[in-house]
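Q: What residues go here?
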């Protein structure tokens, strides 16, 4: 029979995970709006992204405080400790994803002010959708304890990297061949790089889900810097 103390702890863990999902959903909305702002030049979307960054920051502080409180008062071990430790790491990745969305939104604002409107020189929206799909799958892996989705996220990051490298090469050629498009191409190159970095942070999340379920933390993607392999 579950004790009242354990029941309360389980409730706190579930609440913590729900807050993480809310934070990640907010970051996903920011990404979507940022890429839309880039392609449409809509200043309202830029403002929405920047305003939501404050929400992300509040989630970051609130979840970190709750994690530290649970460690201090419950002294969790084994899988419970891995869940809380993962939460502390994942919120950092989500916060960075939100920051990249803000960076892309600011590029949209900069291009709009310079009257250098977006044109489909490269497929930035597709890159954004791929990064967002990775984030969705990483969160589903977290919710459903699904290691198959973890490995799918890692594989999909390779596709994101390939598209980014294609975009980078295409934009470099355009800047060299048409100086009148250099300002636009350079800003789109930055936006593409931010989306590629989003993919890297999502892989970090997936690797942490793998850690929760297996007790082993190690590098799943060969394109990432090695993580210290350990058991818990």
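A:
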């Amino acid at each position: 029979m579950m004790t009242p103390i354990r029941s309360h702890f389980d409730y706190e863990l579930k609440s913590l995970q729900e807050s993480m999902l809310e934070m990640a959903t907010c970051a996903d909305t920011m990404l979507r709006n940022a890429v839309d702002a880039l392609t449409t030049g809509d200043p309202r979307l830029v403002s929405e992204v920047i305003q939501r960054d404050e929400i992300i920051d509040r989630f970051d502080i609130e979840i970190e405080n709750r994690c530290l409180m649970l460690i201090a008062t419950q002294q969790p071990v084994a899988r419970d400790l891995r869940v809380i430790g993962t939460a502390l790491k994942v919120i950092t990745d989500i916060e960075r994803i939100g920051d990249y969305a803000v960076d892309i939104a600011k590029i949209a604002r900069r291009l709009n002010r310079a009257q250098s409107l977006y044109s489909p020189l490269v497929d930035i929206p597709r890159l954004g959708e791929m990064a967002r799909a990775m984030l969705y799958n990483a969160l589903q892996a977290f919710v459903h304890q699904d290691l198959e989705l973890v490995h799918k996220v890692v594989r999909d990051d390779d596709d994101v990297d390939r598209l980014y490298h294609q975009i980078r090469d295409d934009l470099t050629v355009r800047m060299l061949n048409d100086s009148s498009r250099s300002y636009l191409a350079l800003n789109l190159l930055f936006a593409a790089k931010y989306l590629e970095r989003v993919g890297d942070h999502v892989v970090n999340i997936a690797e942490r889900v793998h850690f929760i379920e297996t007790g082993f933390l190690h590098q799943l993607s060969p394109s990432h810097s090695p993580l210290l392999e350990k058991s818990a």
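A: Context that may help when evaluating the design: The radius of gyration is 19 Å. Residues 7 and 13 are 10 Å apart (CA to CA).
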